[in-house]
Specification:
The protein has 75 residues and is an alpha+beta fold. The protein contains 1 helix and 5 strands, in the order ββαβββ. It is elongated.
Length: 75
């Protein structure tokens, strides 16, 4: 799942590919925001991102698009 996180006063959003299911990802985000703690996510390469919940402006979760390479021919 592709996750984009907007952080207050930061010019760029944090983008990562998460291995979590949509349900687990949603629960992790909601728990961090509700408890006012830290949102901790790990990407597919093992990189960990920590963001204080009070600094989160928005979170966008989308399915990862698999892009085809080459040409396609519709008959």
């Amino acid at each position: 799942m592709e996750v984009k996180i907007g952080v207050q006063y930061a010019p760029r959003e944090v983008v990562l590919e998460s291995k979590l299911s949509p349900k687990d990802l949603s629960e992790t985000i909601e728990q961090a925001v509700t408890n006012g703690g830290v949102l901790r996510l790990e990407d597919e390469k093992g990189r960990q991102v920590y963001i204080p919940a009070e600094k989160i402006a928005y979170v966008e979760v989308a399915a990862t698009n698999v892009r085809s390479v080459g040409f396609t021919h519709d008959a």
